[in-house]
Amino acid sequence: MTAEPSLSEGTSVTHVKQARTVVGWDKGTGCHVYMRDVDVAFSRDGILHVGPDYDGPATETIDGSRYLVMPGLVDIHSHPGEEPLNKGLWDEVGSPRLYNSSLYEYLTVLDRDDDSVRACYGVALSELLLSGVTTLCDLAVPSEGWLDIHAQSGLRVCVAPMFRSGRWLTRDGHRVEYEWNEAAGRLAFERALKEIDRAERHPSGRLTGMVAPAQIDTCSEGLLRDAYAEAERRSVPFQTHAAQSIVEFQEITRRHGLTPIGWLSKLGVLGPRTIVGHGIFLDHHPWTHWERTGDLERLAEAGATVAHCPTVFARRGISLNHLGRYRETGVNIGIGTDVYPHNMLDEMRLAIYAARLTAGNPRDARLADVFAAATVGGAKALGRDDIGRLSPGCKADIVLVDCKAPAMQPCRDPLRSLVFSASDRAVRHVYVDGRPVVRDGKVLTIDHAAAAARLAEAQLRAMATIPRNDWAGRTADELSPPALPWA
Hints:
Structural class: alpha/beta
Helix content: 25-40%
CATH superfamily of the largest domain: Metal-dependent hydrolases
Number of domains: 2
Oligomer: single chain
């Protein structure tokens, strides 16, 4: 039995007694394991006990006989301040002349005001909490009050204020152009570093920072190098979107004669703190028709992480090729939600199914692997060993799943019942730093219903701006016809 950490004076302790199943951590093998009929005790000081017969102090005792107790999930790539506004608009679109990507025609046509951003956060952060996420990486353009919004949600958040040297656009739906402004990019970089400083100083104690040049194709060589150097100096993670579209792959190979991963490697910005957002179009992907130059091996040797977000790409008929291959090569994988709905459990299920479809067999993507990616894989990407696992001394980021919920029945294997069947319907209680943020399936820190109502109003305002932002002046219904014709 591991020695229990000492308690701060006056600290309340939650004791889950004789849990039906606990996803514990085996330090010897470095893997999650099932444990039956054991106790879990935790407080704001962290996890105090995982094992049989806890006999220490307890402020609250929970009968664990109906619960699966598991570590909170770690979402390493998300855009919660903007993506919920797109719900119902871009589910079934993709630019046919831009390899079905949605980046260049669709994601630039909605104007967002301050209230729409706040509504997006309210909805997305609620969805994340309800699906068992306790740690989130928010890749965003900083907005007024965003740090306080994160702190008030109760989540543990690594903020990633993005910056870039230029922007992409299309004037005809089949060519992508770049407008450059290096001075503006440098100014945004300086502002991003100040936001990271503000996050690190935030009184909540749950906010950290990440250096995040937005996209490999919109950042100059100098900006990427300097951003990575700053991440190294600060000992914080570094993340950029790379290898996320065929257009980007072709642009980088045209500019440099190297794949996006090859270019990052040549720049010296691949390392253990590097997170590659998406990392789909590598030299082995059949769509690139590129010679094999060792992209997967470069990622593995560098110790870099790929942030795998299957939903946004599956909507366009695009898939990583394939999850098992990345893992076999030794690439660390983390899971991200990226887009609406911000449901980490659904994202995990799709990661498994998409990998099996791509590989052509059910053995290259097992639940144990994807659960590890969504917990300790994400924790490793953030340079942390105190989240993503249930072990004494780790942060008390804990999820209780109701094994007696109808969608969980029969419950021979609780994680399989959760991920493949029940999803967020079975998540009952969520704790971050030992504090309850979801109780009885309800978010305690956010008015979810009010945020959703504001989001619906915000989308109507944003849709009115689409014709003036679209290169062809199209309306929302022209860009995204309804699923069924109106009678």
